[in-house]
Amino acid sequence: MTQPAIFFGHGSPMNALGGPFADGWRRVGQAMDKPRGMVMVSAHWETQGLGVTAMERPETIHDFGGFPAELHAMQYPAPGSPELAARVSDLTGATPTDQWGLDHGTWSVLAHVWPQADVPVVQLSLDRRLDTRGHYDLARRLSALRDEGVVIAGSGDFVHNLRTWKRAGGDPYPWATSFNEAVKAAFARGDHEALIDWVGLAEDAQLSVPTDEHYLPLLYVAAQQRPGDDVSFFNDVIEGGSISMTGVRID
């Protein structure tokens, strides 16, 4: 059965503990037939050269500091899949590795999507040698996996400007709303060229994407979009003025 491609706006690690965004992720899981596995590209695994996790039991990585002990103690014991990692390696040339695991861009979301931790997950790294088109072209090579029962996923944020983030909350900055809507519109019309050349998507785009590690996982999902696919959005909120929690689902 063909599986969806999904982008998750993951925001703060605290979302792992619950809240309205977690409720949205839970609904994503409930609306999906259980897949054979997932390939996740997270903003939080950047490498020189392409890697894919290949261990049977990936570690839950707490790649953050200064959060409550409850969050640091949280585990997400999803299995890995050496078989799926080998398939990803065949498609992309990624090097299988046991030197990573599941970082918070992955487990803080999936703890709600599949709370039983019963879907095998492999992570594919962000190869920093590639430009945006290189990431998109690489992602296209994963598309066959959707027809093999595997979800292709990305985890980041369309808009991710921590310098302007309002800790106490508040209305979105106009530039953040503009960029968020421009990304959604590009998906709706299937305009992948606009997503690749994101600087031209909206005025002040670089305020929304001051560094691109949280944007790049979006291209791995965009690359899975086929003619006639349905596109829907969830958790469509900009938190603290400048962090977009918007998710994208392609079926």
Describe what you observe in this structure.
The protein has 251 residues and is of the alpha/beta class. Helix content is 31%, strand content 19%. The protein is built from nine helices and 14 strands. The protein has helices spanning 20-30, 69-73, 82-92, 104-113, 132-140, 174-188, 192-196, 205-208, 216-222, and strands at 5-9, 37-42, 46-47, 51-53, 59-60, 95-97, 101-102, 121-123, 126-127, 150-156, 231-234, 238-239, 243-244, 247-250. The strands form five sheets. Strands 8-2-10-1-14-11 form a six-stranded mixed beta sheet, with helices on both faces. Strands 3-9 form a two-stranded parallel ribbon. Strand 12 and strand 13 (243-244) form a beta hairpin. Helix 1 crosses helix 4 (104-113) and helix 5 (132-140) runs parallel beside helix 9. The N and C termini lie close together (11 Å). The model has no long low-confidence stretch (mean pLDDT 97).
Question: Which features characterize this protein?
Answer:
six-stranded mixed beta sheet, 14 strands, two-stranded parallel sheet, globular, 251 residues, 31% helix
Tally of contiguous helical segments: 9
Q: What share of residues are in beta strands?
A: 15-25%
Largest pleated sheet: 6 strands, mixed
Helical content stands at: 25-40%
Please provide a brief summary of the model.
Helices cover 31% and strands 19% of the residues. The chain has 251 residues and is α/β, with parallel strands linked by helices.
